[in-house]
Amino acid sequence: MSGEIRAGARLxxxxxxxxxxxxxxxxxxxxxxxxxxxxxxxxEVVWHAVEVTGYVPNRAARSLVTRRTGTIALVVSDNxxxxxxxxxxxxxxxxxxxxxxxxxxxxxxxxxxQLALQLVGTQQARVRLxxxxxxxxADGAVVLSLHPEDTLPALMTEAGLAAVLVGRPATPLPxxxxxxxxDAGAALAADxxxxxxxxxxxxxxxxxxxPASQDRIAGFRRAMARHGHPYVPAVAGNFTHxxxxxxxxxxxxxxxxxxxxxxxxxxxxxxxxxALREAGCRVxxxxxxxxxxxxxxxxxxxxxxxxxxxxxxxxxxESARLLLARIDDSEQRVTSxxxxxxLVHRQSA
Amino acid sequence: MSGEIRAGARLxxxxxxxxxxxxxxxxxxxxxxxxxxxxxxxxEVVWHAVEVTGYVPNRAARSLVTRRTGTIALVVSDNxxxxxxxxxxxxxxxxxxxxxxxxxxxxxxxxxxQLALQLVGTQQARVRLxxxxxxxxADGAVVLSLHPEDTLPALMTEAGLAAVLVGRPATPLPxxxxxxxxDAGAALAADxxxxxxxxxxxxxxxxxxxPASQDRIAGFRRAMARHGHPYVPAVAGNFTHxxxxxxxxxxxxxxxxxxxxxxxxxxxxxxxxxALREAGCRVxxxxxxxxxxxxxxxxxxxxxxxxxxxxxxxxxxESARLLLARIDDSEQRVTSxxxxxxLVHRQSA
DNA sequence: AATCGATGGGAAAGCGCTCTCCGGTCGCTG
DNA sequence: CAGCGACCGGAGAGCGCTTTCCCATCGATT
Lengths: 349, 349
Fold this sequence. Notes:
The structure is a homodimer.
Chain A: H1 14-21, H2 25-32, H3 40-53, H4 59-66, E1 71-77, H5 95-108, E2 114-120, H6 123-134, E3 140-145, H7 152-158, E4 163-166, E5 176-180, H8 182-195, E6 201-205, H9 211-226, E7 234-236, H10 241-254, E8 260-263, H11 266-278, E9 288-293, H12 296-300, E10 306-309, H13 312-328, E11 336-339, E12 342-344
Parallel strand pairs in A: 1-2, 1-3, 3-4, 4-5, 5-11, 6-7, 6-8, 8-9, 9-10
Antiparallel strand pairs in A: 10-12
Helix pairs in contact in A: 1-2, 1-3, 5-13, 8-9, 10-11
Chain A binds a DNA duplex through residues 13-15, 23-27, 29-30, 33, 35-39, 42, 57-58, 60-67.
């Protein structure tokens, strides 16, 4: 760590290291990249020269020749609406985003791989992104598609880009993705509710056009039917706190006898809890509530939410691994990894 | 948009465009970069050739010669603890992170500037980061320092790197930063509480070693003193929901007569609200509660929190602008932009 | 002892781009 | 009409790195 250089001075290059070590650029390059058999003694001399000079490889020069950037992109593909005003997108204020970043970084950082953030809203931006990516802006992309009709995943596969989606695409596509078994998770919730003796169970679902939401609905219905409850009253929300509150009011009004409800995410469940308290219902005594995600909202809720854990960090980490494998070997076949959800028992159900 | 190229084919370079347009590389480069006066007619021919070939500039090659990457780094400097396990850092699950990203992107994206994420935990990682940055991994960095004794800001200024901090550094440093006027915000809270008639006011503060927290404490105390309340009972939390709940229990136990409380962030305030409900206190009738941040927690709370709005997105956007200015002109003098907080009146106070 | 194979390391050719230099054309002035 | 300057566009030199190609060296084999 003796490589202290004055700010502003020209930075050391391979050439400089080579001169100090008394070898050629090629040799230094080999040593730095740990390639081939280099005489152990030279090896040491070179490393020493690297330290003395404070050499750090120039990424641009390297990627110019290797055609690799050592960067992967995290692409958030949102709707056009907020295109000029990304932070209007509530998405960034949602812990979801940070959890994905954290999971990705846990794999990427130890490997020295950069994570570059991309946000696309318009079709034009999507096309441009694909161009940039093809030109080597990044070696691959992890895509967070927030909209069921998003064209980005298709664009990317057509362009032959290395990509992995977080969350199953709305339309089948030859692309790897990671997801949680939403249906199985919902079934877990159904089993639990029935298991604790609920006789009249309702559901607050997410938007009916997003795949994850559809799976939760289907999974829950199927499981309830299996338990002898072919009919499950349901109201759809949009995954926000408020929509959960409203949906609960409606559900309670229309079905006052409900003694159990499955809410498709924790945020809505938290809202539902508030509606229930307002309505004078005790949770879980009068009505049991079960959420989905095991987000921080689950802990903040009163009573703390029994919920289905969504292993987002693990999923993101796995998506990074899949992507890396695909980048290393473009023949890598399309694979999807589906994570098992588990029920986290707290006090609301 | 006629530039459809088969995946896998060699990508078009300046050379290709030049050939198609019948000009030299240099001219194409000028046109693409919008430099100098190029004959308008040629200009058009070149652009046409660009479209025909589907040319996209190669970032690596460009930055190799310009010594600019068109990337800025968002560095999250956390404590050593979670170094191998970034997502253990609760930070990513906090909307704070996403809000900063959103604000940054609102400035960077229209300019076509990349945002690269960096997370450093150990001293070693910090030193390496500085090396990478000097070597041109990014043109500058926006630094989120999560720990009061963080050495990163100092390391960066010593290395002469372009950096802007989000949040005032714990020790004075010749570096630009953006922040919110924490003391003024706390004073706003004090004024409001006193204004609505509270006679006995307490405070739940953040950790006493972080600057933002200190400012809120000092600002609140000063304002209360001005209003004739030299003594303000206080309990410190750590900005989490739970710590707010615990602190409220303690405060209420030790000072049952309290009719107003300022809580240093919304998350803790939400916790405090729950403690209060548990204790049978009505908010705001028995005791008024005011938070800080105006985060989503403020809206999710019941009653909705009166709080001090922390313009995080605007601050992040400004930090990007400051950084960009500094990158364009390294003589740019150190400037700090302090944002005025405003009180958002809801129902808790 | 001569030949062969293996192996380590140097020379040099680019990767795709920018930008300085310089030559060639104009239009304009005296 | 000669001469000067302004301006446009081409040639080409790198930016710092990897990697192929090749030569030299050395130990082993016949």
